[in-house]
């Protein structure tokens, strides 16, 4: 059905009411293909009916087969493989964009869809899609969307949270086109602030049938933003009907969704059906029970018992400043030899900030934060006319291979233009939103081939229930030997090619001089840890 | 001369051009005495001619005698005693407000003073003070000003920076009244963004004669903000001519200064004479050579050699999220006895954020960050109609005295509504602006009287060149015993009443069982450190 929709070029109709300086402004609307075209690699393999969707309400959908599913079969929540995401650069192909669905995907029809605007407005209206496209000037700009749970698996490794296992690819960038929410609200005559009838919040409601809300199904996803945000021209909030120049994909809210740049994805309601202007914030179940950052001492039980969900100060809206190492990738091997040690290795990754702030600095440390190397920044985006930045940027830095050989861990941190940077350590919270501590990659010595050594890089986690990652390994180690002190600084020397070992070979390493153990099918050399174990070396040796 | 000025009640003249919803808005201008009156304790001792100002260009001024001078005699830079600042609560009396002067205070006359508005405006103008008061609607609101160097002495203790020694009282709050910059710029017809003549920056120039800029004196203090900031109604930028209902004091910019809420003090030009709209940011010496946060590896030499001052990304504007413990105060003693141990001790302090963000959480830790107690917040301010907060707030938390007895250190961190919090550790930078790591107070056991024990609290530093503070003490210890490993977790047990010890008493503590040393007139018990000294216990014992 999406294929039957013809989107005109962005409308050039007269604008509703302009800012006072608008007549003097440059035409904001630029051809994004011209601006970002040199970096576009949007071609991907065709979507498929996935066997995992059979028997679910989403059986009619087609999806990119490479997406990593985070919550089993249904609902559909996924991220692309991190290397794949990076390969495409600044603009993510829509079929690879991460997805966060709370329930089944609505089967929508462009021609019959409407968005109702009601509540504290003097001229309520029900807009068709054609009206939305035709009657409002189109805004079109690239926006990075980030799930508030991006990187959450790192926190789940330390202590399970109420959220599922996002890796570091819960982030994607598209060029979104739509009508400005501000224009729509002014057209409908949003009421003022005067006492008693203060139009203070703008609520969004989606179309899907959801289990939440304590009822017997039929609840809708909904949330709200403040009036100030909704009307702020600098925030570029829009009702988007095109992604990268095409109609939205079903998973991304076809035919229309909210886009709120600089904000967590959870406020950007998909399959938008209603906009309601109200005096109070949204009373939707998902508005209160998701996307909150509660203090560390609040667990699920306490959150319910003491009504922490309803304390307004713990809502999250703007994204945190964050950065991730994408090169080296997980399990990437760098051979150490006469050739490689004379060259620099280029580390790379992404960074983003919230609220329109620019990333002004990214730094990498090889020594646990004692010293930092300044990275080169690649910021493809042009800021909006209010100076706001809505997209991720990329960083790179050349590191001497010999310095990597001497490092146990590499870590990255970003700074935004308000001088916010990332904390060193993870701060646990129940929902684990906005995880943004330093992204740390372990550097382990390995033996890629006989008579050759190399470095193998290990990310903190792998998404979903995939094994792998130093945090997962440490967690396994804790499970296998519960008394073992956690160490984040001493890497295990583990092989990258498990199949080289038969169990009889492993059995040879059962002494204090060389203690190997097998955990979840991986072989670990624990020799260096024998002295650290509070229960004594024997606690490991009985496993070896 | 200030006394001769009669400020009318805020003007109620028709506004220049209103926001589209303004007709519907509440009257913003409220009587601040009504709003904040219950907390006002603005009475202070009369100002004096200070002997330290004799022979300087400021000899004509009168100042509050309790202010702590940070840069010797001249220019005048000061902060109030921290306890004094806290005593006055939400609104700081103007005579106690911190002062950052770069040179002599201009002797200004209300009736002849003018502010010239020029550059990329279609109607340049030279405004008298009476015109500024009469011809523009007055805005009046409380704003917390913070010197970007607030708490800088903590960083100077670790490694000397290019800045002088601010304690934790480089912060004050006043009710400021003035004309909105936005109104003035629109009245003057600020030009647009179109190519070639883009009016992108608004520069401010002060009146004082300064040594900076490489010339032979006569330079003026100046800086700039972007057009977006200058015109943004939500930012409340004003040309202020009244502080707490009175004309400005000479030290605070009489007769008119810039106020930019949520921004570092360094952009708020005092004794304002010129506003120039330009295509490029200010070329003023002080705009580039101050208020920058450079990466840690950049020292003074490198900054000059590689022109780090001129890289636009390192400018600072918005304040960082910050919090400070003010109760217990430095050297405060809490006796430990049957009475006190059955009661809670109430810790208190202040917190602020930048850019209009609300402080949503303050937490205190007694165990180095393992667990955190949630504090009660007192936020006296009403946000502006855009939801922005411009003022500090206060926090308090009840702590069991027995828990304090078991703690070595208490620390505080705040969170703002964008989920930014403070880093644990200090991150060195050349200017040391925006220091905002956890504020840590050491808890030392002491003997306030014979046969009584107590806890004595020790702040990290004391302002200016005052001795005192655990960071200063550790620095002295390093100087006295250069090889000694720094410890921030193990407090020295030091007496609070040095006069109890004669040198002959100290000499008795020269063994491994009890090693006292004398550094800068203070007696320190180093027994616990003997085993830590990398040069061996003897390195300390030769001093003991």
Automatic annotation (TrEMBL), chains A, B:
PROSITE patterns: CYTOCHROME_B5_1, CYTOCHROME_B5_2, MOLYBDOPTERIN_EUK
UniProt biased composition (Acidic residues): 17-29
Gene Ontology terms for molecular function: heme binding; molybdenum ion binding; molybdopterin cofactor binding; nitrate reductase activity; sulfite oxidase activity
Listed Gene3D superfamilies: 2.60.40.650, Cytochrome b5-like heme/steroid binding domain, Oxidoreductase, molybdopterin-binding domain
Location of the region described as Disordered in the Swiss-Prot/TrEMBL record: 1-33
Gene Ontology biological process terms, A to Z: nitrate assimilation; sulfur compound metabolic process
Keywords from the UniProt entry: Disulfide bond, FAD, Flavoprotein, Heme, Iron, Metal-binding, Molybdenum, NAD, Nitrate assimilation, Oxidoreductase
Domain Cytochrome b5 heme-binding: start-end pairs: 498-544
Keyword check for Glycosyltransferase: no
Transmembrane segments: none
Cofactor: heme; FAD; Mo-molybdopterin
Subunit record text: Homodimer.
Role, per record: Nitrate reductase is a key enzyme involved in the first step of nitrate assimilation in plants, fungi and bacteria.
Family the UniProt entry places it in: Belongs to the nitrate reductase family.
Name of protein: Cytochrome b5 heme-binding domain-containing protein
Organism: Aegilops tauschii subsp. strangulata (Goatgrass)
Lineage: Eukaryota, Viridiplantae, Streptophyta, Embryophyta, Tracheophyta
């Amino acid at each position: 059905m999406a294929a039957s929709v013809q989107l005109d070029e962005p409308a050039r109709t007269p604008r509703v009411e302009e800012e006072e300086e608008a007549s003097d402004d440059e035409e904001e609307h630029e051809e994004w293909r011209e601006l970002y075209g040199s970096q576009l690699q949007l071609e991907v393999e065709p979507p498929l009916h996935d066997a995992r969707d059979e028997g679910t309400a989403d059986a009619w959908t087609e999806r990119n087969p490479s997406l990593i599913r985070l919550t089993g079969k249904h609902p559909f929540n996924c991220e692309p493989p991190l290397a794949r995401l990076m390969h495409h650069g600044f603009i993510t192909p829509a079929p690879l964009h991460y997805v966060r669905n709370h329930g089944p995907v609505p089967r929508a029809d462009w021609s019959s869809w409407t968005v109702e605007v009601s509540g504290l407005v003097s001229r309520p209206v029900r807009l068709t899609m054609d009206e939305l496209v035709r009657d409002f000037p189109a805004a079109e700009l690239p926006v990075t969307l980030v799930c508030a749970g991006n990187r959450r698996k790192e926190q789940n490794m330390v202590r399970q949270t109420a959220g599922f296992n996002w890796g570091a690819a819960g982030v994607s960038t598209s060029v979104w086109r739509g009508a400005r929410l501000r224009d729509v609200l002014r057209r409908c005559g949003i009421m003022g602030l005067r006492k008693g009838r203060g139009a203070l919040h703008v609520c969004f409601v989606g179309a899907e049938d959801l289990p939440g809300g304590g009822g017997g199904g039929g609840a809708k996803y909904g949330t709200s933003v403040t009036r100030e945000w909704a009307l702020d021209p600098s925030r570029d909030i829009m009702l988007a009907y095109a992604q990268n120049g095409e109609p939205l994909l079903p998973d991304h809210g076809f035919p229309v969704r909210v886009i709120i740049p600089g904000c967590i994805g959870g406020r950007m309601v998909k399959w938008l059906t209603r906009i309601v202007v109200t005096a109070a914030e949204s009373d939707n179940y998902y508005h209160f029970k998701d996307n909150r950052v509660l203090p560390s001492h609040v667990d699920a039980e306490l959150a319910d018992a003491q009504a922490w969900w309803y304390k307004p100060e713990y809502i999250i809206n703007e994204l945190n400043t964050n950065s991730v190492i994408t090169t080296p990738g997980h399990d990437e091997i760098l051979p150490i030899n006469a050739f490689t040690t004379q060259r620099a290795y280029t580390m790379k990754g992404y960074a983003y900030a919230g609220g329109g702030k620019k990333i002004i600095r990214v730094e990498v440390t090889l020594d646990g934060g004692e010293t930092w190397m300044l990275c080169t920044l690649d910021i493809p985006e042009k800021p909006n006319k209010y100076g706001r930045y809505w997209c991720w940027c990329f960083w790179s830095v050349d590191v001497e291979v010999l310095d990597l050989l001497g490092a146990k861990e590499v870590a990255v941190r970003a700074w935004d233009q308000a001088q916010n940077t990332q904390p060193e350590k993870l701060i646990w919270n129940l929902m684990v939103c906005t995880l943004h501590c330093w992204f740390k990659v372990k550097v382990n010595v390995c033996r890629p081939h006989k008579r050759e050594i190399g470095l193998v890089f290990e990310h903190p986690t792998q998404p979903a229930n995939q094994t792998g990652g130093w945090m997962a390994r440490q967690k396994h180690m804790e499970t296998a030997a519960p008394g073992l002190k956690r160490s984040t600084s001493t890497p295990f020397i583990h092989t990258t090619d498990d199949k080289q070992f038969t169990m009889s070979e492993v059995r040879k390493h059962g002494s204090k001089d060389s203690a190997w153990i097998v955990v979840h099918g991986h072989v670990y050399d624990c020799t260096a840890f024998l002295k650290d174990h509070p229960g004594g070396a024997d606690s490991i040796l009985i496993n070896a």
